[in-house]
Design goal:
Blueprint: H1 12-48, H2 51-90, H3 97-115
Length: 116
């Protein structure tokens, strides 16, 4: 077997250079896309661990906790008012003037409190 040395095809260097440039631009584009994704990920982590984010997270958590407590307290109060009204009905004292005012006051008390 003999190896023939000589000049390559006339467009060999141009084709090789074009392939090298396209490979390089593809590589640069992939690196830029990867860098943008990493920047977004890093920004997300930095916001997650910043003091403003954690402060607002704990404030929102406290607000939700208080809302739940208010709901439970309202149900307890509602149950208490029902018991008082049933006791007054069974004792036949609900139609007395003082007790009627008390029942009306107990029913509207939560709405009056929330105004202040």
């Amino acid at each position: 077997m003999s190896i023939i040395y000589g000049d390559p095809a006339p467009n060999y260097y141009n084709n090789a250079l074009a392939q090298l440039i396209s490979t390089y631009t593809d590589l640069v584009n992939k690196v830029q896309v990867q860098n943008e994704e990493l920047d977004k990920e890093i920004e997300g982590y930095s916001q997650e661990h910043s003091t403003d984010y954690t402060k607002s997270f704990y404030e929102n958590q406290s607000i939700e906790y208080l809302k739940n407590i208010y709901v439970y307290l309202f149900y307890i109060y509602f149950f208490f008012v029902l018991i008082v009204i049933f006791i007054m009905i069974f004792k036949n004292t609900i139609f007395e003037m003082n007790n009627s005012i008390l029942v009306i006051f107990l029913i509207f008390l939560p709405f009056i409190i929330y105004l202040f």
